[in-house]
Amino acid sequence: MANKEKVLFDNGVHKFIMFSFDDESQEDSYLSVNQYLIVQKNTGVLIDPGSEAIFDELSEAVSKYVPLENIKFIFLSHQDPDVSGSITQWSVSTSAKFIISALWVRFMSHYGFLDMSRIMPLADHGAKINFGDNYLQFVPAHFLHSPGNFSMYDSASKILFSGDIGAAIVNMDDDYKHVQNFDEHKVYLEGFHKRYMGSNKLCRAWVNHVEKLDVEIIAPQHGLLFEGENVRLFLDWLKELECGSDNIDALY
Residue 22 sits in a domain of what CATH number? Predict the structure, then answer.
């Protein structure tokens, strides 16, 4: 059986946990997705909790680390159902504030979420909020691939949740969760990034932002983690990638 969770950072006070729950009833068509949880002093931040199909499994797993009533924030990197589909279930089971781009606030009612007072809308330039003795920074990632999109940096663990940036559709059944060989892993990145990322100019803007942070792990929403040397290798690759509108002639 696949290992569905992995603690990426734990200093006794602050934890960063990765989950990999899928809707196994739709195994022929589902998209492998990662969810993440940050816990500090019994307060939690849930990141991209995913679709309603995995709510029961994920909520049970999360509750091993922090009571659901102690989840303070739920961060949604963008509007897609593999990110936001379970928003109504999490709104009922927690009293958390939902952090999402201001661009998508009006769309949340289409998921059945109506209490707009619980949404913290992010302006385009992002934000930084205190979390215990540390901070969470919301890094603009617009058009990579969503027009209102953010990554999130956790200063305590030095982990950057990158959303769909760095995503790869790979077999997550093994216990290892990290890229082993970047050159071999590129084949799983290229097709998705060339089509779903907006342009090289946008990729460079995001990389330039990330390079100002002290990042030890890049954690995408789909696929394997980038750690150590692979952080730099991935950023260098993305900075040079021609994608989206750079390839417009081939699409029309």
Answer: 3.60.15.10
Bridge partners, residue 227, by sequence: 217
Cβ contacts of 190 within 8 Å, gap of 6 or more: none
Neighbours of 227 (CB within 10 A): 17
3-state secondary structure of 247: helix
Segment (H or E) for 121: strand 119-122
* Residue-range definition of the domain harbouring residue 160: 5-251
0.90 cut: is pTM over it? yes
- Tell whether the model's pLDDT for residue 28 goes beyond 70: no
Number of domains in the chain: 1
CB-CB contact of 148 with 79 (8 Å): yes
DSSP 132-175: TTEEEEEEE-TTBSSSS-EEEEETTTTEEEEETTT-------SS
Within a 10 A sphere around the Cβ of 93, how many other Cβ atoms?
A: 16
In this predicted structure, what is the pLDDT of residue 169? 82
Please report where in the chains the tokens 């990662």 appear, as a residue: 34
Question: What are 144-155's pLDDT values in tens digits?
Answer: 999 999 999 999
